[in-house]
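re: ur question from earlier - yeah i can do the single chain one, its not a big deal. heres the input i used so u can compare w yours
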Amino acid sequence: MTTTPKHDTTGGTPAASPAENRRWAVLAICCVAAALLGIDNSVLNYAIPSLSRQLGPSSTQLLWIVDIYGFVLGGMLVVAGNLGDRIGRKKLLLMGVTGFGVASALTAYADSPGMLIAARALLGLAGATIMPSTLSLVRSAFSDPKERTTAIGISSGVAAASFALGPVVGGLLLDHFWWGSVFLINVPVMALVLVAGLLVLPESRNPHPGRLDWVSVPLSVVGMFGIIYAIKTGARNGVDDHTVWLTAAVGAAALIAFMRRQTTVAAPLLDLKLFRNAAFSGAIASNAVTMFTASTLSLGASLYFQVVRGWSPLTAGLALLPGPLSAAFAAPLSALLIPKIGRARTVALGLVLLAVSTAGLGMVTPHSSYWWLLPVLVVNGVGIIFIFSVTSDTILASAPRTATSAAAAISETAMEIGGALGIAVLGSVLSTLYRNDLRLPGGVSAQTAGAAEESVSAGVETGGKLSGATGRHLIDAARQAYCHSLHTTTLVAAGIMLVGAVAALFALRNVPAVLDDRTDGDADAAAVTGACEPKDAAPAAAI
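and the output i got, formated as tokens:
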């Protein structure tokens, strides 16, 4: 069970528990595990050309290779989080780390598309056990509110930076080794995490979890899988695809049945009472809004550098790196802002910074100077970490200790859905505007025009196949149209972020600057009735 500080017999200060003595080592281990997940999540796209040449997957198989990880991850998060609270968060993390290492080796040496799809599904399953376990273990190791906020901020910063490391690591490995090397590198790192975790990580769990409701498990998995599949497939193939409506209907029906069942069973898989807590629900909503807009920004920036500017994946990855690195370095600053301006204003400030940087990125042209873009990327990284470091800490601290893995899983699930919806909605806006803004040169055949209108990548590729001035004009037209469409899309995204900033001010307005760990499992509204603004907040020295 969760370890609590033991008082000495002299009436002095509490004696530190073994978990607290190792708390910074716990943070380091969890950061490495989470960072590897972030790198692996972004590295596949850069290995696709090489693995496609070697394995020869069909177009359908290639889509499953790309998507199956996210489908399984999103579908299993709620179940995995609940399981961690039951059997032990350390135990579940070490099981996930072992599974992730084995699945990485299977992925690296896959000799057929089918084997690769199966291995990627196993990676998603292992990732679902690692994600909530890392955050809940960090929360358990830090009992001091100020240290806990700082630690979760650092963890969030490292996780943010890891996504940008994927292109860099992938580019370096693919320049010297075969495509499987980008997955094989996971094995020694996960082996190190496994050994260190066995020796250092403390165990924590819900001491009285109740009986697992086995009916809720398939309802949760089918519901989440169906919704995420429908969102991603609809974004790619359009809503006319009948499988989109079928899977959406099945997923929605399963989720409705799941939610209704959670209100009747004694030990629910998902405790809906958590959402009565203003701190918890407000932070979840802020995360979903952020991912809804930021995911499209990430896609737009990647296409801009690689397609419009023509940079290699490695160069594009290095160009984007200052954003996540600034997030990692700015993470501790959020812990300093909370006692000064409150949690609501810190999250709102992050969303405003994100909105400004998003609108700034949308102002790019095919020939914009990178040095003009650099401060935009830095501001973007700082804004993201002001949001996620505060919301992650708020979610974990406002949930009872007995349900920290489940709370972390809910947060991760909301972010998965928010990101998928962002790509589906804003990505569709970007594509539609691109087609409307594309001005094709004269003399282009209908077939060539249709190919160029598919996307900016297709437009540049199609233009490259045409000889003479026509080809150059088509490439220029595609790049200009993309920049115009990116400008409008980012303005829409920035507007949504500003609305989210205002909503965060209201949703989190009663959340106190200090959120003490709750040891009695109580997570009702009384936990958040303190003041969050500086004039009413507890003094900084008390944090």
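Residues 153 and 199 are 24 Å apart (CA to CA). not sure if urs matches, ping me
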